[in-house]
Amino acid sequence: MDEIKFYYGENIPLELHKVRVVQKLHLVPIERRLAALEEGGYNTFRLSTNDVFLDMLTDSGTNAMSDNQLAAMMQADDAYAGSQSFARLQKAVEDVLGKKYYLPVHQGRAAENILSNAYIKKGSLIPMNYHFTTTMAHITQYGGKIAELLYDEGYVIESTHPFKGNMNIDKLEEIIKIHGAKNIPFIRMEASTNLIGGQPFSIQNLRDVRTVADKYKIRLVLDASLLGENAYLVHLREEEFKETSLGDIIKIMTDLSDIVYFSARKLSSSRGGGICTNDLDIYREMEALVPLFEGYLTYGGISVREIESMAVGLYETLDETMIRQSPDFIAYLVDSLLNHNVPMVTPAGVLGAHVNAMKVCEHIPQNQYPAGALAAALFLISGVRGMERGTVSNQRDEYGNETLADMELVRLAVPRRVFTLSQIKYVADRMAWLYENRKLIGGLRFVYEPPVLRFFMGGLEPVSDWPQKLIAKFKEDFGESL
Ligand SMILES: Cc1ncc(COP(=O)(O)O)c(C=O)c1O
């Protein structure tokens, strides 16, 4: 991939797009940010963007769309059945992902619902490199269990390993032997493993998983929500693919998988999602579930306008200048924070920069949710909204016990082509200040805890008056600055 050097040696990522539509942001005073936290139960999901300055909650549905995506929306063919827009999307799926049978769904978790409905029953076990929140919730709702099979290095937060998302092949065979292949309807590989910091797997690892899947005749399912980014990191980090195009890398990965599903909110910077395969029997096993849960087979709950933008977005996934923008900005943010000694997930991954809250807030016990507290504290002192990815995002076990997360992370998502470099510098500045003042941050406790996916709607409160102490220190250092 082409590099752009600065004559005076500065090492910064350069935007290869121009901004033509803008949206005003609100940087409200710290007192309003405190009130917003209180109203939102110290849960960053429950904040209004009226109070948020930089929205780094997620890249899901928040990536900037291209002019061509928006233009394509104008040619939408609004038909309940047999729409030409759907035919264009089907072709894009086949061209980019190499699968000829495609089932549309309204977003990624809807694909998980259909897959789980079709294949999971009580006693099923799904081996995976690592879980994603919605994936696990669907599998357990249908009576299944998951087995996470990362290598030990996947759990090492500060590491130099290029492929922390790899699946442990020995453990995979071991678990199949113990549990029995007949109870394992599929093996799931997640591209750019989200919850461990957007960390990729290598193609060699996927080949090895495929070999085991073939040996025991188990389907291999690829969660391709972050496939473009995984392909980009394969290109950068896996020797064999240094000269291979993104499009070819993507095809190699999808060819190795029996079923590919995705959230188009991520993959193609649109809305929607899908499940695709080259196996007609597999397609038929799920076909009837789409009209049942989503909508007719040629729209699947997605607006036809979004179907058009999704088709264009899928082709744009093959454009290096588009796909590398977010990982390159993330790498810059991670480096800036490391320079201020802030503990981060390394190597820098995709979708966001991930702060190691377990270390930043080592004085906060895990059952007082250090990552949730850090996310709330960062919003308070900066208006930057990150996401807790730790114990709050975990679900209780079948007996109702709290399950402590392997990692306590605050994710600062960097959606594609949304932020400028000065905004990224602001985030680094405020996070570095917060790190220096970390001892002022205290824990949280639940006051409202929903039984499923509690992190979305749950409400918490601080265990002490630490937010007020943090505000006092902020005022001391920043005066009247917002
Ligand atoms: C890896 C992965 N799988 C599935 C999903 C669920 O997708 P959606 O949010 O579109 O339902 C996500 C969403 O963030 C994801 O990151």
Summarize this structure briefly:
The protein is α/β, with parallel strands linked by helices.
Q: What does the model show?
A:
- With 482 residues, the protein is of the alpha/beta class.
- It folds into two domains: 30-59 and 322-478, Aspartate Aminotransferase, domain 1, CATH 3.90.1150.10; 67-318, 3-Layer(aba) Sandwich (Aspartate Aminotransferase, domain 2), CATH 3.40.640.
- The chain contains 20 helices and 14 strands.
- It has helices at residues 30-39, 67-73, 84-97, 108-119, 133-141, 169-179, 203-216, 227-237, 246-255, 264-267, 280-287, 289-293, 304-316, 320-323, 325-339, 357-360, 370-382, 421-436, 454-457, 466-478, and strands spanning 54-55, 101-105, 125-128, 145-148, 186-190, 219-223, 259-263, 273-277, 352-356, 384-385, 387-389, 409-413, 444-448, 459-462.
- The strands form five sheets. A five-stranded mixed β-sheet has the order 2-8-7-6-5, with helices on both faces. The chain has a three-stranded antiparallel β-sheet with strand order 9-12-11. Strands 1-10 form a two-stranded parallel ribbon.
- Helix 5 links the parallel strand 3 (125-128) and strand 4.
- Helix 2 (67-73) packs antiparallel against helix 13 and helix 17 packs across helix 18 (421-436).
- The protein is globular, with a radius of gyration of 22 Å.
- The mean pLDDT is 97.
